[in-house]
Amino acid sequence: MSEPEIPDRGDATYRVALPTFEGPLDLLLHLVQKHELSIADLPVSFVTEKYLEYLSLMRVLQIDIASEYLVMAATLVHLKSKTLLPPDPKQDAEEGIDGEETDPREELVRRLLEYQKYKDAAEKLGSRAVAGRDVFGRPAGAAPIAADAPLADLGVFKLLEAFQSVLKKAKVEVQHEVTADRITITERIHELCDAMRNKPKIEFSELFEGLVSRFDYVITFLALLEMTRLRMTRVFQSEAYAPLHIELTVTDDTSMAEAKQRLPQG
């Protein structure tokens, strides 16, 4: 896998701080669910390749990668090497294994199953509170109200996948660029807010229309992440495999001004 070009953004490394960005086990579980894999029979080579693709994309974005992600990457590469190589009887004897063939994936599978169990339990408990809050009795004789289709909120992993897809389709400039006039994340957020005031709900791909350089793509995506973290935007899709949509949640002047005050300086 070739190393992607890392653009120089000219400012500090960005740290993703979205609630859904929970750690390497969350990323592994996302990969398992997305590709419909069996945790009990985890294909280590395939998962390792996809996991490293995510880390590579984070480096392109200059997102600060927490150390536990790198530890998991090293663990996966180690497991991949052990599954590809024949068993070493000498090493097994040193580790006290009496002729039994052990599965090097066993500990990782155990951790992943345990993480899935607790995550599913947390989601079920959380959905009960939301259901109780959102269910209201309809007054007698009231006419039925037409409602929009349910919208599923998305995690940061889905955003990373969508951005990776946009980059692959885009014809961006990769040659040397003049950096003097590059904007900051905060400046790009102001531009996006102004552009979306007239159209508060757009498709994800529309954010990148008219952009020509890889830097423009990266700074726009990082601005979206920051806006989502500050609850200035909501990312959703109507159903599985449907296009991603971005909705501006601060539309009046007062809330917009308050949101902009929370933006990083510079």
Give the amount of beta strand, in percent.
5-15%
Looking at the chains present, what oligomeric state does this protein adopt? Answer: single chain
Q: Specify Rg, calculated over alpha carbons.
A: 23 Å
Helicity, in percent?
40-55%
String of helices and strands? HHHHHEHHEHEEH
Overall average residue pLDDT: 75
Question: Total strand count, please?
Answer: 4
N-to-C span: 35 Å
Q: What spatial order of strands do you see in the largest sheet?
A: 1-3-4-2
Structural class: mainly alpha
How many structural units, i.e. domains?
Answer: 2
Number of helices: 9
- Ranges where pLDDT stays below 50 over 5 or more residues in a row are 1-13, 16-21, 142-152, 174-180
The largest sheet is: 4 strands, antiparallel
So what's the overall shape?
A: elongated
Give a description of the structure.
With 266 residues, this protein is mainly alpha-helical. It has helices at residues 24-34, 44-60, 67-84, 89-94, 106-134, 156-169, 185-196, 214-229, 253-261; strands at 152-153, 201-203, 233-237, 245-248. The chain has 2 domains: 1-133, no CATH class; 149-266, Arc Repressor Mutant, subunit A, CATH 1.10.10. It is 50% helix and 5% strand. The model is unreliable at 1-13, 16-21, 142-152 and 174-180 (pLDDT under 50).
